[in-house]
Amino acid sequence: MVDKLKVLFLASEVGPFAKTGGLADVAGALPGALRQLGADVRLVLPYYRLVREGNFQLRTVLKDLKIPLGSEKLPANVLEAQTEDGVPVYLIERDDLYDRPNLYGSAVGDYYDNLERFSFFAHAALILSDALLFSPDLIHCHDWQTGLVPALIKGPYGDTSTLAGTPTVFTVHNLGYQGLFPAGKLPVTGLLKDEFFHPEGLEFWGKISLLKAGIVYSEAITTVSPTYAREIQTSEYGLGMEGIFKHRRASLHGILNGVDYNLWDPAVDSHVTFNYSPRKMEGKRRCKESLIQEMGLDPSVIKKPLLGMISRLDNQKGFDLLVQMLDEILELDVGLIILGSGDELIQKAIQDAATRHQGRVGFEIGFDEPLAHHIMAGVDIFLIPSRYEPCGLTQMYALKYGAVPVVRATGGLDDTVVQFDPLTKEGNGFKFGPYKPAAFVAAIHQAVNLFQDSRTWKRLMANGMKADFSWDKSARRYLEIYRSVVYGNFQQVAQ
Ligand code: ADP
Ligand code: GLC
After folding, report:
1. Mutate which of 143, 178, 393, 414 to test ligand 2's pocket (most atoms within 8 Å of Cβ)?
2. Quick one: which of 385, 377, 256 has its CA closest to 314?
3. Which of 5, 41, 169, 395 is the most exposed place for a label (fewest CB within 10 A)?
4. Model pTM greater than 0.85?
5. CA of 313 to the centre of ligand 1 (A)
6. Are 295 and 308 spatial neighbours (Cβ–Cβ below 8 Å)?
7. Which stretches of the chain score pLDDT less than 50?
8. Ligand 2 binding pocket includes 21 (Cβ within 6 Å)
């Protein structure tokens, strides 16, 4: 059946326009997959400096749209671009809010006016769809930056606007970012205190939480893996919101993210020096050689297991385990390459270790898309020791590139990596349970030992490379949820 649902899709990052992490990968690919299934999806994104400098084809579609911000109305222009799959992307241009070096803040902290920036974005998205005469059947919001939208639909846009009654789906990509702001700033949002600032609404321990607004005022909530959907209902992972998720569990769905294999497949990847595939693996060794050279490691590393990481440098990602055990890991006679940007303390700790093990550790600080692809293609083992991981995309990329993942069994990592069994030769990687340094090293040890048995290792790589996480299946699940909210069979939400 062809699905003609009209979907307004709101995210604060969308690949390839603006990216800091996996949200951009998802928002860059899922709309295209939905479009393939017949849905009319339109994206909205702030016109950040990164987009301005990105050399994309743009045209102005609306000028001087008046957007509410607190008690004022400020003008904004709307530009239009398209994703590779032909999905329209509307960019909100307002330079005092979005023409900045980064998307959310600097190394010192978040921008002081993020509430203003993302309130403006939420209002602008709603006003522009009205102005473009695009009446969506539903609005799909992602993470705290868009959490205000479901509340606005129930509040100021609930009476007069053509959007009144439009159902919303809210996807939690990461519960660690709750969009918290002081209660006194509520007037910025345009929401009335009595109506919205209470424990059943967007109040969270005396603060505004835009994430909570998205969760309580949406008709359906999704998160990015089945395991994370269960975990966030527990006190260990719920970060104080477990009660809310338990209460809404009938409308909470865990849908695994997919992979865009046009971008992440060593057979077609335009970033890698040598393409390769399961039946033609020579390129992998050559990619390893050129990566070793690029990162300035000792050429002898070619014979050793080469470990890699590509990550935001954030506590979520398990860097405390890595830093504590770095010396022990390197005693296993391996090479290690890390690409990351973020927390300065983590940077410093890794840098110190890299200095102690020159020639065997390569550490690149920054956000570097081509290097991320070189690392995927060049390493033998890919490490993700996350404290929690809603889905995680890099383990799925690693599998496709024959880089065997060693992961902590949590969230989407647990759903996608299957522990290798040396007897049956089934499985695609190595997992550890307790968030403990020794457990992490033990899992790396298993991988490094198996690496010496090259026949079995080949089998293990092949198991991973044949895994298929393409978007189609997950996009169909989203469509089912879209239909359920549009045609009405969902649980009542907070009013
Ligand atoms: P998260 O969204 O929590 O950061 P994911 O695994 O879902 O984690 O997605 C991370 C995405 O960001 C992947 O596409 C990964 O390759 C990319 N990435 C992370 N750090 C960097 C970096 N320093 N340079 C280039 N790409 C990076
Ligand atoms: C978040 C999560 C990550 C997930 C990504 C995309 O940033 O940390 O696990 O893959 O969003 O959904």
Report:
1. 393
2. 385
3. 5
4. yes
5. 10
6. no
7. 1-3, 491-495
8. yes
Region of 55 please: left (phi>0), alpha (psi -120 to 50) or beta.
Answer: left
Backbone angles phi, psi at 490, to 5 degrees: -130, 165
Distance, CA of 455 to chain centre? 35
Reduce the DSSP state of residue 338 to 3 states and report it: strand
Distance from C-alpha of 37 to C-alpha of 135, rounded to nearest angstrom: 19
Round to the nearest angstrom and report the end-to-end CA distance of the chain: 34
Q: What is the dihedral angle through the alpha carbons of 102, 108, 125, 61, rounded to the nearest 10 degrees?
A: -30
Ligand whose nearest atom lies closest to the CA of 388: 2
Task: Tell me how far the alpha carbon of residue 67 lies from the centroid of ligand 1, in angstroms.
Answer: 33
Of 375, 377, 312, give the one whose Cα is nearest residue 346: 312
Residues with Cβ within 6 A of ligand 1? 21-23, 25, 310-312, 339-341, 367-369, 372, 391-394
3-class DSSP assignment, residue 154? helix
> Kindly report the CA angle at 321 between 319 and 325, in degrees rounded to 5?
115
Name every residue whose Cβ is closer than 8 Å to that of residue 281 and which is 6 or more positions away in sequence. Answer: 402, 458, 461
Tokens representing 60 are 């102005």
Query: Is the peptide bond prior to 150 cis by the omega test (within 30 degrees of 0)?
Result: no
Separation between Cα atoms, residue 137 and residue 292, nearest integer Å: 51
Q: Quick one: which ligand is closest to 258's CA? A: 2
Of 102, 312, 363, the one to substitute when testing ligand 1's pocket (max ligand atoms within 8 A of C-beta) is 312
What is residue 223's three-state secondary structure? strand
The tokens describing 75, both together, are 């003008």
Query: Letter for the amino acid at 321?
Result: L
Say how many Å lie between the CA of residue 385 and the centre of ligand 1.
Answer: 14
Output phi, psi for 16, to 5 deg. -90, 10
The confidence score (pLDDT) of residue 336 equals: 97
Q: Would you call 435 helix, strand, or coil by DSSP?
A: coil
Question: E-strand spans in 201-355?
Answer: 203-204, 207-209, 220-223, 252-254, 306-313, 335-342
